[in-house]
Amino acid sequence: MGFVWSKPRGTLDDSLITEYPVLVRVGDLLLVPTTDMDIALNDRLWKHVGVVAAPGKVFCDGEFTDVRVFLASHASVVVRQLHCARPFGFEQRFLVAACDSLTHSMDPEPEHRTACEVGYVLAAMGLIDWAHVPTLKAYHFSAETPFRRLDLHMYSKHFLV
Prior knowledge:
17% strand
């Protein structure tokens, strides 16, 4: 009886979505964790920090990268979503702030340059204080950091992408 009523696996069991969307918005922070070896040797939890500066574009290491390329180039990425009002022109102002950070003369240590650039963008948008920008490191953007230099209450906890 089971043979007559059973059917082969059909196409309805397969997923219809072949490429899953990445849901990030302008202003979201993207943190790239370090490897276990780097944590043990250098005591650094985060390798890079980036910010979504335009729809589909991440600003990290002084360049704009497509979100999908950024996610594919790292083993894991953690996102902190920005929860604030986004008035008309918010995305354009964010992009202009990211471009301005490239021309602004900051001379931090090479491994902390990315954090300072992201800090410049957030300060230009009025999200953090300008006084903290030159001394920022990637771990200051983490929700779990014991260092409370930045007040990032408008950002969510960590979500693994």
